[in-house]
Amino acid sequence: MSDEKQAEGARLWNKGGESPAWRWQRAPETPLNRFLGGSPIGVALRLFVVSLIVGALLMWLDIRPADVIEGVYHFFQRIWAMGFDAIRELGNYLIAGAVIVVPIWFVLRLINMRGPR
User: Fold this and answer.
1) What is the rounded distance in angstroms from the CA atom of residue 37 to the CA atom of residue 32?
2) Which 8-state DSSP code applies to residue 116?
3) What is d(CA 88, CA 94) in angstroms, rounded to the nearest whole number?
4) Calpha distance 90→79 (Å, rounded)
5) Rounded to whole angstroms, what are the CA distances from 55 to 47, 62, 116?
6) What would the DSSP string read from start to end of 7-18?
7) What is the pLDDT of residues 29-83, one digit of tens each?
């Protein structure tokens, strides 16, 4: 087949003269995509996978969802019962959590700083 016939066939399939690669380009950035950090389906899939991994880890550690909810309830109940000592206890919880959360957050920010994707 000659090059002219191939070009003519391509024009028939591609009437606007655009490249068929338009199908693989990213969708325009919407406020919802910016808020979620990606497309809703992609974010839901990532959350599903991470939830599955964390859930498997918690089950392996024998921590059930009801135990977590009950622990949060008792946490707030103890704070209410302690009165002003609750502020000191809350500070201890905050510092203990920050020791884990802040370094993880910092590493994730460094990883995400590598530039546009």
Assistant:
1) 8
2) -
3) 10
4) 8
5) 12, 10, 32
6) HHHHHHHSTTS-
7) 888 887 777 888 988 898 888 889 888 888 898 988 888 889 989 988 887 777 7
